[in-house]
Amino acid sequence: MSLDPTADLGVFLNPEEFATEVRLWPGSGQERVINARYGEEPHDLRLSGALVGSLQISLLCRAADLAGVAKGTPLSIPANSRLGVPGGNYAALAQRPAGPGMALLILQVRP
Questions:
Q1: Reduced to 3 states, what is the DSSP secondary structure of residue 48?
Q2: Residue 92 burial (CB count, 10 A)
Q3: DSSP, res 82
Q4: How high is the pLDDT of residue 36?
Q5: What average pLDDT values come out for the chain (111 residues) when binned by 10 residues?
């Protein structure tokens, strides 16, 4: 018997519990919806010697759901007050592995 660490990810990515729906490529022929956990992490930058605080916005999702997603891929997230998700329009900035079967998608705000 083998254990598949990715078998129960649906528990963490259920939009009725911890996750929110994310629309990749909104308004295009490639548009699709995935479930992800929204997060904001404090992030400090140094600009001309001054320390500036900001938030790094990210999504924790199944790595397989990010097939075809590259830097600049547009996405939209609806507001979800229950989870503290402000919603808005974003673009993919980077991807990082986040454990078996999971990935962290770093976002930037787009107009």
A1: coil
A2: 19
A3: T
A4: 97
A5: 64 88 96 96 83 89 95 97 94 95 95 78
CATH match for 9-109 among 3.40.50, 2.40.10, 1.10.287, 3.10.150: 2.40.10
Tokens 């995935």, residue located: 34
Strands 74-77 and 50-62: unpaired
Rounded CA Rg of the chain: 15
Q: For residue 90, give the H/E element and its range.
A: strand 88-97
The per-type count for the chain, helices as H runs and strands as E runs, is 0, 6
Q: Are 36 and 20 in contact (CB under 8 A)?
A: yes
Instruction: Determine the Cα–Cα distance for residues 27 and 24; give it in Å rounded to an integer.
Output: 9
